[in-house]
Amino acid sequence: xxxxxxxxxxxxxQYGKIIALHGVDLDVNEGEIVTLIGANGAGxxxxxxxxxxxxxxxxxxxxxxxxxxxxxxxxxxMRLKIAQSPEGRRIFPRMTVYENLQMGAAMDDxxxxxxxxxxxxxxxxxxxxxxxxxxxxxxGGEQQMLAIARALMSxxxxxxxxxxxxxxxxxxxxxxxxxxxELNAIExxxxxxxxxxxxxxxKLAHRGYVLVNGSITMAGTGRELLESPEVxxxxxxxxx
Length: 240
Known about the structure:
alpha/beta; Rossmann fold; 2 domains; 6-stranded mixed beta sheet; 10 strands; about 25% strand; globular
């Protein structure tokens, strides 16, 4: 079996004396969609940010395509063809949609800018309609589309998505998850997805992990976790 594209081994992260992650182990293989589910405050976003270098892991190792990135500066990690669409979208609100997409393309030195712009418009037609509008004036769903499109403009090999469904209407959530599925199926994009909406995430993912209070408590295929009584009770039946 080939080596994982992303490997997190024994990663511990802390904020001062507060330990947020307790020795997390997980792998993302090339061409997979892997999801990490868990309640609010479980440490999901902390893991995503630790992979990107802020905060740093206090113990353990993070490997990308066999290369140790645990102590690399964030901008160097991004240059390895990793892109993140962070929690809360974090687009540039005063810049137009076009300028936000330009910022994403900067990591690829604008080498494929025009062609990639058209790809984004095919995936998210709304962005074409809003091209010269400031990011901060878009709806929440449009901002999420922009955040994902901005990440994709860098032509990543690994896409990190942090809570893409947060606060969005069900129809928009479905549209965004359909785009992720299509990118994976057609272009073979590898995706690591952190998500509170366990049902959508596990339906989409090849494999999943459950994070509880900073520790991985379960792992399996998306289907196995969807059918697990523990996951159903905690995440799929109006639980945590």
